[in-house]
Every structure is written in structure tokens, then in C-alpha cells.
Amino acid sequence: MAIKKSELYSSLWASCDELRGGMDAGQYKDYVLVLLFIKYVSDKYAGVPYAPITIPDGAGFKDMVALKGKPDIGDQINKKIVAPLANANKLSDMPDFNDAGKLGSGKEMVDRLTNLIAIFENKALDFSKNRADGDDILGDAYEYLMRHFATESGKSKGQFYTPAEVSRIMARIVGIKEAKTSADTTVYDPTCGSGSLLLKVADEAATPVTLYGQEKDGATSGLARMNMILHNNPTALIAQGNTLTDPKFKGGDTLKTFDYVVANPPFSDKRWSTGLDPLHDPYERFTHFGVPPDKQGDYAYLLHIVRSLKSTGKGACILPHGVLFRGNAEAEIRRNLVRKGFIKGIIGLPANLFYGTGIPACIVVIDKEDAHSRKGIFMLDAGGGFMKDGPKNRLRSQDIHRIVDTFNKQIEEPSYSKMVSLAEIEKNDYNLNLPRYIDSGQTEDLQDIAGHLQGGIPQADVDALKSYWDVCPQLEQTLFKLNRPGYLDLAVEKGAIKTAIYQHPEFAAFISGMNAHFDAWRKKSAANLKALQPGCHPKEVIHFLSEDLLAHYAGKPLINHYDVYQHLMDYWAETMQDDCYLIAADGWKAETYRLIETDKKGKEKDKGWTCDLVPKPLIVARYYAEEQAAIDRLAAELESVGAQLAELEEEHGGEEGAFAELDKVNKANVAARLKEIKGDKEARDEAAALNAWLKLANEEAEGKKRLKDAEAELDAKAYRHYRTLTEPEIKTLVVDDKWLATLDAAIHGEMDRVSQQLTQRVKELAERYETPLPRMTERVAELEARVNAHLERMGFAL
């Protein structure tokens, strides 16, 4: 049976992290990812003629396994595995597997390396039949490890990794997906880190393209080279060196130009000009724009990108927000870039997304092709759309999709996006700070003075709920009645607001219509999902399914189609992805397996059984509902007896109670006490309480046994039932009872949220203005008079 992907990655990380010891995650990643690389190329290319990667004899993963436990394991890995593999494939900056300072010495090094190799012997990590650019375990395993390494590395060392979500946005907004690409199409990242951003752009292209990257850090550039190989781009050219002072990709004395350039350079690099004379730059990167300030290198990287683009080239660069508004030299550069029409758009991102810093950043989108005809810059402020993920913020699937849709389609949306004319930008002295053009703050909930003084809910507040009245025109008149011009009163009791909304014919019809709308999608999707076959590609499955759901809900009133889309993407990540990979590997098989728990002493204990694709509750709900209902009744009866016992113990507890003589209230002590006081007339009340307790305790014991027996019988029935399941039955259980039922509940919850928002807002407005100031003053006077009268009766005359 195939292992669940989520379990594989989490166990892989847990094992790696456990072995890390005192080493910094930024260093440990080099060892782990080199092991992943060696395992992959060994599985994929060993013995394959004309393979893009050469595996020298004796330098494969199986040869590394043979070194486990040897006292000189580190030295042997360097000599027999790493050096031959690096030399044969022109790989440099490989980590030292015999470094005692990082890996420990003697037995510590032997154990650490032996255990590390053992992690990658997992049979589920078999790359021989997987494609690096498709639905395989490699790409996701790499992404999972890199995210965790970046998180653990701290602020100073997260620059080797651009969050995958941001990389996906950049890849989708540069336009490579829509372009006619070929092997002659070039993509370049001047600060490529581990190469993840470069690979994301390549993944968006319709055909294979040629990749170029340069990285200053030696170890990270080596990682990028391996990453290219791991993701089926072995011909990618990755150079090591400082891009600004020593660019490696040139055409004669000038910089080589590319079709697409993407980058996530170090923010505000204070040493960008070290070793460079910007005023006499041989590549004329600053000639027509201006020289960036000595301590702020952001524009140095952006101008390098501009210079590296062909006349039809397109690019995207992640920069801190300061580049949009800082003055002096940067203001001059910004002015010249805008005037030349090179900036197509700006996307503001949430704060605390990146591993190297917590400050908010933006994506500056460059487009040379349409520069001469550009009349404005498309601005998008996505700073409010994210989720918390541990110490960092993270873009959700819906945030990514909304950003890409809005930018690529140039959709103007209040408080989110706007096409800003060059004339308006010029009036603002070429300041591109997004808040100057997009008011993304929440609308202030203003208090109405006249409403507080004279009573009545302001008509303007009710009109602000227009989206509801558009769907249910008569509902407004049901909830509100006229007080005076411009002000309304609540037409129903405050406690009846929810009922009035839910039971209104128009609102009920809306809910019914939305339920039918989901049912239509559910029916179509069920047929498609039940048609999945072994060997299917889950990433293609979720792409088609999610895009179809998003389109199905686009334009629907009161409900945000991106919120609906997110429910599916969350469930995919939580459960459905693992299920689809199981189906892709094994087909529609409901295989049970035992849960074995091993304690610290190595002793195994059987904890029962489970089935990943078809969990037991699905079998019970569909085939043994009566038995489950009977168990539920037994559990309720048992709970009732337990409550009576607790009540009896509380009633007769304490120093004077019937249980006062007992050290502990249990059957043995109660029976012994009853024997003690037998025939004692003065202890009749105590005996009655103890007998009542004993009766209930016996009922509880019998109830527990009946419940346990019933649960065991149902468990056995369910377990046996798996052997009788046909493939159509499994499909029904998984697709209808599990996947679509869960999504149905989530989307129904979305509709509940919509109605609750209206209920809460109407109630809030009613309570805000229900007591006008004069009435409040009268009420205070009444209460004051009552207090004074009470004090007077007590002899405290004021």
C-alpha cells in the first residue's frame, strides 16, 4: 500500500530535524538535500545510457548505504561518493561529510551519518518511476524540506528560499504561460538562491525553456545546480558569483539579454557597490536612470534586471516597499523608470512573508515590450490577504488566485486594485506608494449623532447592506419600518431578527437556490472523480476541480467565490490530496492495516486498525446506522447513570455526609461500610445513600460492559465488511460520503456565515440606536431618584 505523502514528508522532516543536533538548519539543509539529490539521480539515472547525469561506478546511493556504520564513513562518503559525482557532473561547493565541527567526531559522526542515510532508504522514496516535473514525490518533498529549513534558519539565513506562494505569483504574472515558448526562450534569475523561483517560471511555460541563474553564495549556488537536476532541468546554467560586480552571463562586453527575468534580491543591500564603480559601470546599468545610494542596493538589482531584458522582455522583482516612495537618488531613478514606461505594475504583499525579514515587500513588474504605449501603472494592494503559519504569514491559495486573476485581467476593484494613470503619478511627483492611490483600509463605522439624540437607525447604514436587499428586496421592509425621514426603526422584536431573516420567503429561496447550485456541481464532479484511474495525476485533478468550482461560483451574490475555492483547497491539503495519491498508486482499494505503537523500550502494542481511503465511520454511517444508534443510546444511558452517581456523591459528601467515613468512594469501601453498619438503626439514612450509590455503580458497570461489547461487535462487523466492498461501493463511499459531503458541509457553512453577518449587523444597529439620549437621561434620573429614596429610608437623607 502506498504511503500517504503528508506522512512521508512530515516523518522525513522530523527525522532530519532530530538528527540535526546543535547544527544550524541552514547548514544541515546542505547535507539533507545532497542526500536527496544522490538518492534521486541514483534511482533515475544509474545505468541509463546517455543520461544527462553521470553516475560513476561505486558512487551511487546503494554504495553510500554500504558505508553505514563504518568508522571512517565521513571520509569515505567524500572520496567514494561526493567527489566522483561532483567531478563527473561539474558540481562544486558540495558539503564536507567529514566535518567534525558540524557532524561531531568518532561515534557521533558515524551514528549521525548512518541514521541520515537510513532516512532515505524508505521504500516510498523511490524516484525511478517518477517525473520531477509532474505528480511525483520529489518536488513536494523538496518544497516541504526547504520551507522548514528556511523557517528554522532565522532572519539572517532565509534568503536561499523564496516562499513558493510568491514564486507562483511571479511565474504567472510575467506572461510566460500565454506566450509561444521554445527551447530558445530564456529565463534568468540574477540572485537565484536555491533556484525555486526560476523553476516555478519554467513550470508555467508550455514547452521546455532555457534557464540561467547566478548566485553569490557558493553552497547555495551548488544547491541550485542540484535543484535544476532534481527537477528535470539538467541543462540549466547556474553560475556562482556576485551579479552586480561580476555578472557571468554576457554577450561580448555587454550583458546578455533574456526574454524573462525574475528575482528576489537581498533587501536593501548595504554592500552592493563593493568592488564596483557605479559611475563608470561597464554595462551602463545606471547610465539612463541614476546611481542608487551607497547603502540601499534595491534599485541596483532592479536596474540590472531592466538592462538584462530584451526589448520585448518581461520581468518581476521582489523589493521592499521603500523603493516606492524613498527620495533623493531613488526618487530620480523611479521617475526615469516611470517616464520610460518600463513599470507595468506593482503588487503590494503582506508583511512577514519572507524568511529573511518581517517587513512588507512588493513585486515590481517590468514590461519593455509595451513601454512606448504605456498610459498607466496597474497597482494592487494584497497586504490584507494571508493566514498565520507559525511565526510567519503565508498566502493562501485564494490569495494567490485572486492576485493573479486581478493583475492579469487588469480588474479594478475598490480598496484592492486600480489602474493609475501616468498623469496622476506625475502629479504625485512619481511617488508610487500604494496607499496614495488605493485606500485599502476598512470603512469606518460612523456613529450618527441625530440617531443617538432622537432615536432611529440611519437609513445610510441600512442602505450599506444593499447587496442583501438586491437579493431579497422585500426583506428590508420586513426588518425595518419608517421612524422619520432618513431614519428607521426595527420592525420585529430584537430576539426575532434571525428567525425573520431565515424564514423570509426571498431569503429561503436564495438559500434553496444556492443549495441547488452546489448540487449541480456536485453531480457533475462526482462523475468525474469516480472516473479516476490508477496512474492519474492528482495535481491535474485538483487544478481542474478547483478551477471548475471557482468558475461555478463566480458572479454569485453574497458569497465570495474565492472563499468557496479556499474550502476545497484546504480540504485538498488536509485529506483529499493523500486520498488521490493512494488512488493514483493503488487504485480504488480500501485496505485496512493494524495500528502498532512502539513504546520507549521497543515493545509493540496493537492499537486496533484503520483504513486511510475509507475510514471506519463511513462504513458505519452507510451500512450500520442502526447499530451505531443503539450504541449512542447505550452511551447516553451510561452518561446519565454517571451523572446520577456524581450528583449522589456531591449530595452526601462533606464531613457530615453519608460518604464521610470512606477514604475513597468505590465498591469495596461502600460494601465494607454497609456490612459495618448493618442493623444500626441510627445509620439508616447512611445505608440508604450507600445502597443507592451501589445500585447505580452496578448499573454503570453493566452499562460499560454492554457498551464495550456493542462497540466490539460493531467494530468486527465493520472490519469484515471491507472484504466485501466492490469498487463502485468504494467510489460511492469516498466520493459521495467523504469528499463531496465534506465540501457540501463547508460551503453550507459559508452560507450560514453570510446570513449570520446580516443578523449580527441588524442587531448591532438596533442596539446602537434603541435608546436615544433624552430617554437615557430620563432613565438615569429615574434610577437616581430610586437610589435617593432608598437611602432616605435607611436614614441617609441627602
Automatic annotation (TrEMBL):
Molecular function as annotated in GO: DNA binding; N-methyltransferase activity; site-specific DNA-methyltransferase (adenine-specific) activity
GO BP term (any one): methylation
Top-level class of the enzyme under EC nomenclature: transferase
PROSITE patterns for this protein: N6_MTASE
EC number of the protein: 2.1.1.72
Keywords from the UniProt entry: Coiled coil, Methyltransferase, Restriction system, S-adenosyl-L-methionine, Transferase
N6 adenine-specific DNA methyltransferase N-terminal domain: residues covered: 10-120
Coiled-coil residues: 624-651
Transferase keyword on record: yes
Superkingdom of the source species: Bacteria
The reaction(s) this protein catalyses: a 2'-deoxyadenosine in DNA + S-adenosyl-L-methionine = an N(6)-methyl-2'-deoxyadenosine in DNA + S-adenosyl-L-homocysteine + H(+)
Ranges of residues in domain DNA methylase adenine-specific: 135-445
UniProt-listed InterPro entries: D12N6_MeTrfase_N (IPR022749), DNA_Adenine_Mtase (IPR051537), DNA_methylase_A-5 (IPR003356), DNA_methylase_N6_adenine_CS (IPR002052), Restrct_endonuc_T1M (IPR004546), SAM-dependent_MTases_sf (IPR029063), T1MK-like_N_sf (IPR038333)
NCBIfam families cross-referenced by the UniProt entry: hsdM
Family listed: Belongs to the N(4)/N(6)-methyltransferase family.
Name of this protein: site-specific DNA-methyltransferase (adenine-specific)
UniProt organism field: Trichloromonas acetexigens
